[in-house]
């Protein structure tokens, strides 16, 4: 170091060295000064690359050697990609962002994204002073901008858009996140209850914009779950605003309405209030959407839940029914009818009540359902079977057409069987139920003891009176005639007795037919995987 | 190698201050040519009436600039470079290093904080102008060039009686010979083991694997497999359901023939 004297200046010279062979790679970690990051206050820090962008080529595509794989699939896929000129950018580890965690789990988190173009036209060097006074210059390899990651809850894009649309109306901004939390909370306890039924829920949603399951959903949900969730939701709602209000006051945020948050959260007029309270689907409007899909199936909606109620209360009854009905169609109906309402009980989505208002059939059914409750249990079985016509084993076939009812009968019966096994069963039952249906309910019937519930109490076949007085053609005679002539499936039979000609509603048709078949006790045989009935007298 | 783990915070704790200096490209190139301990020049820090003045002087031996292709271009790099000092406001800059030594001892350590930013500027001199001119000339050359040829190019494609590649191919075919029908049981074994690896196969691939004539192979396949015409795996063969036993992982159920 040489000191050069000067009149009013003094300077010192330092040697600058650029070390050649360091294994260290220098990078810049840039924080925004607004974040007030003080590196010396960090007690410990962990940093690693954020590998979330790496597409695992093995995992993304189908597993090798597993069922469904093809020979040479990988090469073919690659050739295909090349043909279309799809260029997938390589995943370079050095360009991936960093994740920096300061002070352990409870501390701050930062994400550092690499800044491009740093080393293109000029190079950055870090000059550090060595103990011997010389400077050492190290080239900077990369520049990473670190931003703190929010740990608090944020709105998703959809929610944000919604709120943006209401920004002029909403004064209390705290309620926004509050409602969101409420919503999540409600979803939470519901989900816990229905672990097993989760799949069922999804199935239901899929099946149904017209599907049987969905219908049950609404109805039962309304009746049974609304009470529970209402109370719980209400409590939550109440407690939350209060807590939030407290928080707000404590923090003294900049928003002006912090004092009013309590009252505002409870005000009716507030927009955000009703967001979280999804249980409030009592109103007609909200249920109207669900209505659309279910109109057709409405007819037996009431019936089924009621039937289910019966079933759950008195399992013997339904079982007796099952044993009585040889075809087991009705069993299946019941099963399904009972099962899905049971499922739907737990489900949150609801608009059932409004359903009642829509369809006249429902009213009729409601009446008959109520009536059913008082009558001997067999009635309930019959109702259940009628009810399941709408439930239909096939998702997406809302029509109560006689064609579909037979399938629904079977599905319902099988489901009922399953339902007996696990009253609270999950949707995993439904596929099992369907399989059962395929296998034909004859097993269930002939064995006379639905193994699942094990509560079989045989009951002599009761003479059910034909419900409808106005049947022109749907008599035992007619059915007997058909069955003697040639073997038919239930579907075929139903086709013969179309609702328009007999004047019966589809549900009634189904009921009557079921009873008739029970009385006739035809033989069964399996043709083309379909259960056919026939008589040989 | 993934670098993860604890960050060595000694630099941050000691509040080591470093300078971040922006250096022109040509200068960094010259520095890369430094030999020995890496001395590249001298830094003079002076205080002139309260203002700090920093200047960097490049070593003499590093002033030779290489032109294109590593030959001396006759231009010399300027030697004096005053530093323009700037503040670090608006950003908190920290310096961290990744040490990648052998045997996966990746360590990340925080070296320090940037206390001063500077820009290294060359003093405007004749040398610098020449240097710049050279650079501009190099850059302004187009990447692609159209050049007229005097003679037509005749060396690319010459007619050949038979391409060498073709000859090889024919020879290979002849050596392989026609595919002979092996024992049916053996073929079945081969097929089963093949289907153990993948579920769907193209007939061509199966021929490749088993080295059997196509018709014979097809007969055997008709016995034990089915041909998918539609669906995602179109035109592929797969084993009949009773023969296969996939379970996510693969298990093969061999059946007696």
UniProtKB/TrEMBL annotation, chain A:
Record field: compositional bias (Low complexity): 390-399
GO terms classed as biological process: positive regulation of transcription elongation by RNA polymerase II; transcription initiation at RNA polymerase II promoter
Biased composition (Polar residues): 400-409, 439-473
Region (Disordered): 180-477
Predominant localisation class: nucleus
Keyword Translocase tagged: no
Subcellular location: Nucleus
The name this protein goes by in its record: Transcription initiation factor IIF subunit alpha
Keywords carried by this UniProt record: DNA-binding, Nucleus, Phosphoprotein, Transcription, Transcription regulation
PANTHER family: GENERAL TRANSCRIPTION FACTOR IIF SUBUNIT 1, TFIIF-ALPHA
UniProtKB/TrEMBL annotation, chain B:
InterPro entries xref list: TFIIF_beta, TFIIF_beta_HTH, TFIIF_beta_N, TFIIF_interaction, WH-like_DNA-bd_sf, WH_DNA-bd_sf
Keyword Metal-binding recorded: no
Main location class: nucleus
A molecular-function term among this protein's GO annotations: DNA binding
Alphabetized UniProt keyword annotations: DNA-binding, Nucleus, Transcription, Transcription regulation
Pfam families in the record: TFIIF_beta, TFIIF_beta_N
GO biological-process terms attached to the record: transcription elongation by RNA polymerase II; transcription initiation at RNA polymerase II promoter
Keyword Transcription regulation listed: yes
CDD domains recorded: TFIIF_beta
Subcellular location: Nucleus
Known role: TFIIF is a general transcription initiation factor that binds to RNA polymerase II and helps to recruit it to the initiation complex in collaboration with TFIIB.
Protein name: General transcription factor IIF subunit 2
Lineage: Eukaryota, Metazoa, Chordata, Craniata, Vertebrata
Gene designation: LOC120042594
